[in-house]
Amino acid sequence: MGCSICDSNSRTGNFIEMAPAKKVLLTGPTGFIGRFVLEELIDRGCEVHCLNFNDSPHLKHERVFTHQFNLLDIEALGAKLESLLEQTGAKQCIHLAWYTGHSDYLTSEVNQSWLEASKRFTNGFYKGSGERLVAAGTCIEYDLSLEQVCVEGSTPLKPDTLYAQCKVELQQHLESVATANGKSWGWGRIFFVYGPQDRPQRLIPYIIRQLQKDEMAEPHFGGLKRDFVLVTDVARYFCDLLESEFSGCVNFGSGEISSVQQVFDTVGEILGKPNLIGNNSNIGTSGTEQRLIAADMSAFRARVNNRKSTSLIDGIRQTTEWFLGNK
Q1: Distance between CA atoms of 274 and 63, rounded to whole angstroms?
Q2: Is 159:282 a contact under the CB 8 Å cutoff?
């Protein structure tokens, strides 16, 4: 666990000293994305130090360590983080913790608290032994009124909600502090994530639930086009970005544009109940719903990792199988 491991070579009888596991801090390890990031880090051989307030990570592993840590305790945060960095020897961090999963997350004043806490956390991380911090952003940082594929450094930012405004401010702070300390950083703007273990009220779980009850699943704005990205892909993106030397903002999408109607139709086909899927090509009224929100993934693939994203049909199939097996 974080120390050199000796392994024998059967042909020579010599011992090979294995490199110590890379030590990573992870905030938000029990969240929808965080639990998959934790699994991905373990699969990559990392020693993961999870910062939690209450819940413990679902994954029990010899390289997973849990530290009770309240990021919103501003006064104690600096000293506690300094002690933790010294204790663990971690030099890299994926920061996911935020106020999400709540119906008011776009407008809640709690976003301001998380912004301040995240700034303090960033300061403490780089003041200590931290070398690289990667954090979660959102696609709604962009000016979505342009209704075009979003390109890093080209599409202007125009955060219209408090949540997005706080995320933009944190990204700017992260860049400033990392640069001033000669350290590296990364920021992933997440698009429309879905997958196994998603919340029941989200789009795909809703469709699955309706069809399981043999009831109609009706899209309200089936004509809207989005970039839906599987949660396990997002987890890989975070780990790829952490392992890279790139400092900057990149999109976390699939690079595949799909209509909301297509999502409904795909679930219906997979479950063998296409007759229970409503057909609605409505795109909403002007100014209420953006017709297109999608990611250009060329920067990520050129600068971070040229991996292929999971197709919509394969991702929905994985999601559907999980929900059917976990009723």
Answers
A1: 45
A2: no
User: Is the distance from CB of 48 to CB of 64 less than 8 angstroms?
Assistant: yes
**Which tokens in the block code for residue 25?**
């801090």
3-state secondary structure of 296: coil
Are the C-beta atoms of 136 and 98 separated by less than 8 Å?
A: yes
Residue 240 token pair: 């790829």
On the CB side of 6, how many CA atoms lie within 13 Å of its CA?
4
**pLDDT tens for residues 204-258?**
999 999 999 999 999 989 999 999 999 999 999 999 999 999 999 999 999 999 9
Domain boundaries, the chain: 19-195+229-253
Euclidean distance between CA atoms 252 and 194, whole angstroms: 12
How many Cβ atoms sit within 10 Å of the Cβ of residue 289? Answer: 16
Q: What is the CA radius of gyration of the chain?
A: 21
Please write the tens of the pLDDT for every residue from 30-72. Answer: 999 999 999 999 999 999 999 987 766 676 889 999 999 999 9
What is the pTM (predicted TM-score) of this model? 0.92
**The domain 19-195+229-253: what is its CATH number?**
3.40.50.720
Cβ 207 vs Cβ 267: under 8 Å: yes
Say if CB 205 and CB 212 are below 8 A apart. Answer: no
Label residue 217 left, alpha or beta by phi (over 0 means left) and psi (-120 to 50 means alpha): beta
Tell me if 276 sits within 8 A of 317, measured CB to CB.
no
Spatial neighbors of 185 by CB under 8 A, at least 6 apart, are 132, 133, 134, 135, 174, 175, 178, 247
The two three-digit tokens of residue 313, written as one number: 């049909």
Count Cβ atoms below 10 Å from residue 269 Cβ, excluding itself.
14
The C-alpha angle 256, 31, 181, rounded to 5 degrees, equals 85
- Residues 181, 23, 43, 234, Cα dihedral to 10°: -30
